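Hey, can you fold this one?
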Amino acid sequence: MPFGRDDIEPDKPDKNGRTPLRRAAKKGREGVVKILLGLEGVNPDKPDNGGQTALLQPQESATPRAT
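Sure. Predicted structure:
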C-alpha cells in the first residue's frame, strides 16, 4: 500500500502502456524515479505498447541520471 493508501497503483499503465516510472524517467525526474523504484510491485522492465521500458527511456532522451 504505497503512501498509506490502497487506491494508488504505482505500476498501472496509461492507455499507451506507459507506467508512472516510464513517464518520470522520460522527463528526467530522478527523485520520482527513486521513489517509484523503492515501491513494491513497480517493474522497471515493463514495456509500453511500443516496447519501450523505463530503463531504455532515459538513454534515448539523454537523461541517464534518471536510471
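The chain has one domain: 2-60. Let me know if you want another pass with a different chain boundary.
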